[in-house]
Amino acid sequence: MTVDAHQEKLNFQAEVKQLLDIVVHSLYSNKEIFLRELISNASDAIDKLRFEALSDPALYESHSDLSIRVSFDNKARTITISDNGIGMSRDEAMENLGTIAKSGTREFLSHLTGDQKKDTHLIGQFGVGFYSSFIVADKVTVISRRAGLGHEHGVSWESKGDGEYTIANVEKATRGTDIILHLKEGEDDFLNEWRLRTIITKYSDHLSLPILMLKHTEDGKETTEWETVNKATALWTLPKNKISDEQYQEFYKHIAHDFENPLAWTHHKIEGGNIDYSCLLFIPHHAPFDLWQRESHHGLKLYVQRVFIMDKVEQFLPQYLRFMRGVLDTTALPLNISREILQDHPSIPKLRAALVRHTLDLLDRLAKDEPEKYKAFWKEFGNVLKEGPAEDFANRERVSKLLRFATTHSTELNQDVSLADYVSRMKPKQTKIYYITADSANAARFSPHLEIFHKNNIEVLLLTDRIDEWVVSHLPEFEGKALQSVAKGDLPLDELSSKDEAEIKKDEKVEHEQKQAYDELLTKIKGILGDKVKEVRLSHRLTTSPSCLVRDQNALGPQMERLLKAAGQTVTESQSILELNPDHAIIKTLHKELSPEKLAEWTYLLYDQAVLAEGSALPDPATFVQRMNKLWMESL
Fold this sequence. Notes:
Helices cover 38% and strands 20% of the residues. It has 22 helices and 22 strands. A hairpin with a 2-residue loop joins strand 12 (300-304) and strand 13 (307-313).
């Protein structure tokens, strides 16, 4: 290897330096994973070569046998992992090894706590394979040449993991990458053929590429003959009864670059139908840090006839299932397929429908047979699955059965109640599924809109996630039962009350008399509030509060209005209806003769209280405080 004079000493990106320190200390208890991560990266590099060589076979440079080689040198105390994959140019080495280009890196780092156990799964989801080298090495040398470039365009990258690295041009006869680990003192355990073979078979047996090591004689002497250490058979092509749980778990860690086992998986091989394919789908244990970043790409690894084509292919699963990881191998697509052709290929809808079905079947099984696992899934991915009813009309009913909510049935406020659970507890005369949306659990639980439901022991869904109002707008009914907001429209007294017909008629008579008695007051209050409200009327929602605001049945809820405004959209605000409780002492007092000034003060106060109770912000909080103080002083 010849090094030219064009050598530079550069500093790591600040985020790399911070991440490197955390990786080394958080993953130190499981040092051997460095080999898994480097072999996994080498496998990815070979996959990329295969893909680019589909359109440019010259990249193989007359050497199409692809493999990964692992060797060690006792005297030099080094371990070398070599691949003949796509390799790197000088610029690519600087970009891939000295910086982290991932969006959301700073946000990710801000979530790291210094607690090694908690940080480990976060680091795994972020993907830091190469930097795990520094767990066992105090110096790492990378020698690489990109396929298709001349021998003189090799690059040497070297660092001691101390915040800086050197990079130089070198001559390299073969394409691909060699990573040389100069081991720290005390890490000689890894300078052992049996130890390295054990790690490879433990973590990388499933790789379809051969991983080679030099043969040794019976007395331990190294020969010049390379032999395959792993089985080198694509895992998804094997019969399910030939694959152990441990093999599935290690395969997941390879494709997802995760350090944790998956929560669950499903494996299918379909032949002889209208479309042939194999798929292996995994649910991660934890959500990746970039799950909610729009610019991030999620999806499956695509193979065609066992040849890797591309990574993170999003066409096979809808966005609400973007948390799934896995591989799809099919004969239904051409080897030279591109992302552009994928958009219009006639096999895509069939493959997509099949993969969605397999995923929903897996979730159904978890919900039914392993409720604790489903609870863990829901905690991580529930808000993503809630996008389903809006995005996937064909599977809306299936997805709706998988949704979970907090309800007034429990004081714990856990999202563990299915719509089927709710329906099973409905009152005999109840025809609707009632819900309330709010910005927080307490705002929902203590809303005045729930008072009549508490009184009659009718369960209400408490929807407090930002996406919830969007969900119910695309989920009008479940099993023939309409979903109804407790803060919209009018409420059917006969459905809510457990009273008999005679008692209901008696209540209706009282209500009629109250309407007549309060008609003049309601007219005055409407005149005071003007365009602030659409209407003022008596309420049969309220039992202890004096007032609340109600929207028309088809109007946007206040939570959705606030979300749209926050997103910069122009929103035509809905005029609410002010409902007053005729049995409340304040309303009874207002019914007496009051001066116009006093009535106006109390009217604005009741309106502002109702605005606060629905979770909205007051347009003029200072005036509200002044009114409150004035009324307190008068009462004193």
